[in-house]
Amino acid sequence: MTGLLIVGASQAGVQLVASLRALGFDEPITLLGEENHRPYQRPALSKEFLQDKVGKESLIFRSQEYWDEHRVDLVKGQRIERIERRADGSGTAHAASGRAFAFDRLALAVGARARRLEVDGAGLAGVLYLRNADDALALKAAMPAARDVVVIGGGFIGLEAARSAHALGKRVTVLEAGPRLVGRAVGEETSEYFLRAHRAAGLDIRLGAQVARFVGDDGDGGRLTGVELADGEVIPAQIALVGIGVVPNTELAEQMGLAVDNGIVVDRYARASDGATVAVGDCANLPNPVPGSPAGERLRLESVNNAVEQAKVAAYSVVGRREEYAGIPWFWSNQGDLKLQIAGLSLGHDATVVRRDDARGKFSVLYYRAGRLIAADCVNHPLDFMAVKNALAQGATIPADLVADAAVPLKGLARPA
Ligand SMILES: Cc1cc2nc3c(=O)[nH]c(=O)nc-3n(C[C@H](O)[C@H](O)[C@H](O)COP(=O)(O)OP(=O)(O)OC[C@H]3O[C@@H](n4cnc5c(N)ncnc54)[C@H](O)[C@@H]3O)c2cc1C
């Protein structure tokens, strides 16, 4: 019997352990995941790791000594398929292997999985995804023999991987079904900036591109040779990397009868609808944590920062204290020479101001909602990023009429909201 069973041994689960031990939580913890790797950081998988700039060992979060010292039973390679619970919140998690894990308390840190593209030829060798270490190892192994890489999906991971493949000397085409790049996460100005910059760097980017099927040399069992578009064009490819978003892993929560709506629904304290289970990271749907957001606005965030901050909140809940999300959500994405940092959430913005300094390769967009600063996308501009992040953290705004001149630093312009 363990005190706390954490299902999902990745960014959120690892942070939950660290925060609980820092708070003095003394009970046995089992950190369990289905992957056969020690918990590792994902961001480099599409960047430095793919480009052979860092090795696998450098991505591992903690040594075995850490887990031993912190009295954590790290269980790898076990997929939980069913969870039985008693009225007091304790229960037993059943793995596909037949093993059972009894617990007093449960945390779900099960993350998300890559959305599959179900078109003809999806089973061909060379059609790949990038969510976990095994995916990244398969992609890396396929790279040397590939000349043409087609990336399907112009979101963060697709663009990061596209620039990595390009840096490895591949001919890269990006197929985005929507009208602009990274449409879910950034505004039009940032999309446009990325489009121009990636094209200038040598990527062939097609917007509004519909994949009809994958073409192979020998039916569905063969190797990929190209990607066919709806208009009949076949783009040569030995690798097709599909990066069309993720699906939160909510099956266990559903089976337990917890509220689920684009993720496991949690309150400000990371508690699921039963009040006992905590759910954290990419799998959780939480109230918008940005100060001043409309009551009842909810969202699911897919970022390291969110996994870390929510895990801290959840740790307080597990020890019976109430602490809300601290700080402002932020995110980064490195795409070749473009270092994007996002502070805040642009959800619901009704105005933007662009700050552009082409001579120095800097670009920022500030987002406003009802006259109040809510977020910024900053490309190669850490000073703008820090200024906005600090202003938001203080509950302040930076008036839109003061920011248009990119030569004027944002630092010092914050005013009470
Ligand atoms: C290639 C890539 C690049 C990224 N780059 C960035 C970046 O630059 N910046 C940034 O902020 N974020 C980035 N992210 C996102 C970031 O990595 C995620 O937000 C973060 O990993 C979420 O952590 P998590 O613990 O919630 O979920 P996950 O990392 O998805 O981990 C969930 C774990 O739970 C396991 N699991 C699921 N179901 C079960 C089950 N039933 N039984 C047992 N185990 C189970 C899974 O196998 C997985 O190991 C990137 C992600 C990827 C894939």
TrEMBL record:
Domain Reductase C-terminal residue range list: 330-413
Family annotation (Gene3D superfamilies): 3.30.390.30, FAD/NAD(P)-binding domain
Reported cofactor(s): FAD
InterPro entries reported in the protein's UniProt record: FAD-oxidoreductase/Apoptosis, FAD/NAD-bd_sf, FAD/NAD-binding_dom, FAD/NAD-linked_Rdtase_dimer_sf, Reductase_C
Key words, A-Z: FAD, Flavoprotein, Oxidoreductase
SUPFAM superfamilies the UniProt entry points to: FAD/NAD(P)-binding domain, FAD/NAD-linked reductases, dimerisation (C-terminal) domain
Name listed for the protein in its UniProt record: Ferredoxin
Species for this entry: Georgenia thermotolerans
